[in-house]
Amino acid sequence: MPVSTPGRPRSASTGSPGSRASGGVAQPPPPAREALDELDQLEADVIAEVAAIGSTGDEARRLAGSVRETLGRHRRDRSRLRRELGLVPGLPAAAPEERAPDLEALRAAQEALVFATAEAVGRVGGAEGGVLVDQLRAVAAHLAVTELWIEREQR
Amino acid sequence: MTGARRSRRDFVLALARLAGAAPAALHVIGGAPAAAGEDADMAILYAAIGMEQQAIDLYERGVDGGMFAGRYRDLAAAFRGDHVGHRDTQIQIARERGGRAPDEERRYPYRPRGEAEAWIREALRMELAAEDAYSTVLRRIDDADQRLAAAYILVDEVQHLTVWREVLGVRLY
């Protein structure tokens, strides 16, 4: 089967930078904030991978441009969502690290982002969560495109 | 709402009605404001189970009738398996909440006319309806576990949709 059916993800909270001291006692971050922080991190990973792939040809450049544009919009929408939920702003987006083109690494980064977005949809309900539902559709479609690309290269 | 969007929503509602969706679920799937709560969540769950059964039926008939050939047959069989998983997950959730999954098996109400491409187009139309329905109800489900399950199902629906779009030569990006 060329398109993998996502299984249950690993814990979305692993390695999250959410914990911070308050009055000398470490407080776990609120779930919504933790989920949004993780999306910021995983998105940066996808952007770094897709930037590397974008240097490999015209089709790749078009795909990379489309993914970057969409993810940039997602970040802005999540900033708005943070404000609506009364959460602290996320860290500013860092410049993408330079990496070697690697379709499988891109696929893995996209899959992690898809799983984390699904988890975030589970945590943030109501009208506010609608933003994340739209983001989930978009990142799932990006993942499917990369999987089709890998499958095409293997044929 | 644009004409295309309205016609897509009408199609989703038609499928949901034929899947046996209760009025509370139809309101939510139709995008109307609806009272949230346990009863509405359960109605949505039953509607989703009925729609998953329709998807299983479409792929089953297409595969068994030899309408999907070669690679497309493998895809249709895999997607059928995904929909079986979606149905069973939601039946499990319904049972955990003290509900009783609908007994009646729901058939996909439309039969594509023609050969393989017509079946792929119908599968695309059905997957689009499923994506639309899950995207809409995800905004209304109160229960976090049910929402999480629906989010993972939505990922599958988007993947199916993307694959059929690629097969039909629709530009993806």
Task: Write up what this structure looks like.
- The complex is a heterodimer of chains A (155) and B (173).
- Chain A is mainly α and 155 residues long.
- Chain A has one domain (30-154): Up-down Bundle (Ferritin), CATH 1.20.1260.10.
- Chain A is built from 4 helices and 2 strands, in the order ββαααα.
- Chain A has a two-stranded antiparallel ribbon.
- The longest helix of chain A has 28 residues, at 58-85.
- The radius of gyration of chain A is 16 Å and the shape is globular.
- By secondary structure, chain B is mainly alpha-helical.
- Chain B has one domain: Ferritin, core subunit, four-helix bundle (Ferritin).
- In chain B, helix 1 (3-18) crosses helix 5 (116-138).
- The longest helix of chain B has 27 residues, at 38-64.
- The mean pLDDT of chain B is 88.
- Classes of the chains: A mainly alpha (155), B mainly alpha (173).
- The A-B interface holds A 1-3, 5-6, 8, 62-63, 66-67, 114, 117-119, 121-123, 125-127, 129-130, 133-134, 136-137, 140-141, 143-145, 147-148 and B 74-75, 78, 82, 85, 131, 135, 138-139, 141-142, 144-145, 147-148, 151-152, 154-156, 158-163, 166, 172-173.
CATH superfamily annotation of chain B: Ferritin, core subunit, four-helix bundle
- Number-wise, the strands of chain A total 2
| Number of strand elements of chain B | 0
The chain pair with the largest interface is: A-B, 33 and 29 residues
Give a brief rundown of this model:
The complex is a heterodimer of chains A (155) and B (173). With 155 residues, chain A is mainly α. Chain A is 63% helix and 4% strand.
Topology, element by element:
The complex is a heterodimer of chains A (155) and B (173).
Chain A: E1 20-22, E2 25-27, H1 31-53, H2 58-85, H3 103-123, H4 130-154
Antiparallel strand pairs in A: 1-2
Chain B: H1 3-18, H2 23-29, H3 38-64, H4 70-96, H5 116-138, H6 144-167
Helix pairs in contact in B: 1-3, 1-5, 2-3, 3-4, 3-5, 4-6, 5-6
